[in-house]
């Protein structure tokens, strides 16, 4: 949405541009999820590609082209760029040791393997230390590999793969990043990596699903090769449709701006520009990295229920523009964005309804009742300067990639408009001097016109309604920012205005909070395909281990709780509180092997912190292994 707002505002400022996006369809997570659902990867990605495309459109996010990295365009462009990198000497073969599962008889790429991070020792997946230091891991780097398919130990075997000479681009990247525009978090994070260690990058994987590496039917290119190339191929698809030349954008001097999440800065600011430079393509001009989304101050998680589904939001009668406003006005683009139904209600009622909606409705209704048309009058210098100042603030905010600052500036103009209307008291003036009252209303209407134009990128549908109520016949989506200063034509007929915003009542917010609460209590759900089945990806998030109780003490004041110190193969025992005192005494639990969910969010129970959960059946009978195993062994 911030990208869509940015694009809409740039167009109002006279920029010629195209807005490109697409579905990222390759990589091991796609294959793993498809296998768990017993469908092909192609069936999975086509289903979600159409769902995402439709969802964006429901929210007014309109791309010039929404492509797919599995399109013929992207397969062809990825092959072309990969061959160019090979021809220029930037890609070379190298025999490396890779995790191989002798049971499944396959090499294990990325998320098919799990083990320990070679840098920090944390549990990690094959391509990233996702639970520790966050480093990108090259194939073969992971320690103590385990096959994610069968759970058995993997071994290392030699296989030939292909590497991109990323290390040769260190000097280029240092200069490129110093000049890169966008948000400082993107630039500084990438500079930290480049100034440190820059290794050559393995760009092939042992998968059937993906873009074939040139000349090798047994290898595909790594997903982070073909995924960003999707920007180029989506541009090609658009260009073929409209009769344009895609090279004007990717081999010319166009300004290329990326809006991304902060979790993929490494790929967009290091891998991607190096690939483009190596293959002879245009470089990104700016990278804008957003903060991550939270729900009620909890980490966004579909599996745990901390999620708000767009379909659910719309089905309960909320307008898309309210969500657009919330998401771009809540906080600075680089900070975490927390979605709360209560804050959503406050912003809708206290800002959209009480400030913007109030000004628009009272101005239009009073004018309609007393004049029926736009009255005569000159636009006062004070009003002109206020609108001019707002436009300058909007331009500055867009240039600095700060949509919240832009929204705050426009809302300040609405506050000015309310103060103007209130201080001039047209309800009194109309009785004593109708001509003077007309002049006041003309100025108030001019402020409303400016607000419609400046808020259109944020709330396109609502501002279209306001534009119609002003009696305007032009397409507001094509009206430039400068039109905010063009005086309204006198005599334009006005109809009875509509309320732009309704009050968001307590009962609907209570209902939405209850839906969220039920989802969290139920452990999450999916809106796209409701099912009692879970994917393997969801299961693998559970860190279930064997533990040995080293100490057990009854919790004072409780008849059911026992505080356990459990050896989970970590540096020190983990404290866990369990309600099993009615079935087990503290003494008989010592040295007992138990099963523990280790990555459950910590909780305080009866004043005692618990960092895990014992697994039990029936009325509390503990699950135990049927033979001795060492503490910390994973359950698979």
Automatic annotation (TrEMBL):
<dbReference type="Pfam" id="PF09334">
    <property type="entry name" value="tRNA-synt_1g"/>
</dbReference>
<keyword id="KW-0030">Aminoacyl-tRNA synthetase</keyword>
<keyword id="KW-0547">Nucleotide-binding</keyword>
<keyword id="KW-0479">Metal-binding</keyword>
<dbReference type="InterPro" id="IPR015413">
    <property type="entry name" value="Methionyl/Leucyl_tRNA_Synth"/>
</dbReference>
<dbReference type="InterPro" id="IPR014758">
    <property type="entry name" value="Met-tRNA_synth"/>
</dbReference>
<dbReference type="GO" id="GO:0004825">
    <property type="term" value="F:methionine-tRNA ligase activity"/>
</dbReference>
<dbReference type="InterPro" id="IPR004495">
    <property type="entry name" value="Met-tRNA-synth_bsu_C"/>
</dbReference>
<dbReference type="InterPro" id="IPR009080">
    <property type="entry name" value="tRNAsynth_Ia_anticodon-bd"/>
</dbReference>
<dbReference type="GO" id="GO:0006431">
    <property type="term" value="P:methionyl-tRNA aminoacylation"/>
</dbReference>
<feature type="domain" description="TRNA-binding">
    <location>
        <begin position="538"/>
        <end position="636"/>
    </location>
</feature>
<dbReference type="InterPro" id="IPR029038">
    <property type="entry name" value="MetRS_Zn"/>
</dbReference>
<keyword id="KW-0862">Zinc</keyword>
<dbReference type="InterPro" id="IPR033911">
    <property type="entry name" value="MetRS_core"/>
</dbReference>
<dbReference type="InterPro" id="IPR041872">
    <property type="entry name" value="Anticodon_Met"/>
</dbReference>
<dbReference type="Pfam" id="PF19303">
    <property type="entry name" value="Anticodon_3"/>
</dbReference>
<protein>
    <recommendedName>
        <fullName>methionine--tRNA ligase</fullName>
        <ecNumber>6.1.1.10</ecNumber>
    </recommendedName>
</protein>
<dbReference type="GO" id="GO:0000049">
    <property type="term" value="F:tRNA binding"/>
</dbReference>
<keyword id="KW-0648">Protein biosynthesis</keyword>
<dbReference type="InterPro" id="IPR002547">
    <property type="entry name" value="tRNA-bd_dom"/>
</dbReference>
<dbReference type="InterPro" id="IPR012340">
    <property type="entry name" value="NA-bd_OB-fold"/>
</dbReference>
<dbReference type="Pfam" id="PF01588">
    <property type="entry name" value="tRNA_bind"/>
</dbReference>
<keyword id="KW-0694">RNA-binding</keyword>
<keyword id="KW-0963">Cytoplasm</keyword>
<keyword id="KW-0067">ATP-binding</keyword>
<dbReference type="GO" id="GO:0005524">
    <property type="term" value="F:ATP binding"/>
</dbReference>
<dbReference type="GO" id="GO:0005829">
    <property type="term" value="C:cytosol"/>
</dbReference>
<dbReference type="GO" id="GO:0046872">
    <property type="term" value="F:metal ion binding"/>
</dbReference>
<comment type="subunit">
    <text>Homodimer.</text>
</comment>
<keyword id="KW-0436">Ligase</keyword>
<dbReference type="GO" id="GO:0017101">
    <property type="term" value="C:aminoacyl-tRNA synthetase multienzyme complex"/>
</dbReference>
<dbReference type="InterPro" id="IPR023458">
    <property type="entry name" value="Met-tRNA_ligase_1"/>
</dbReference>
<comment type="similarity">
    <text>Belongs to the class-I aminoacyl-tRNA synthetase family.</text>
</comment>
<keyword id="KW-0820">tRNA-binding</keyword>
<dbReference type="InterPro" id="IPR014729">
    <property type="entry name" value="Rossmann-like_a/b/a_fold"/>
</dbReference>
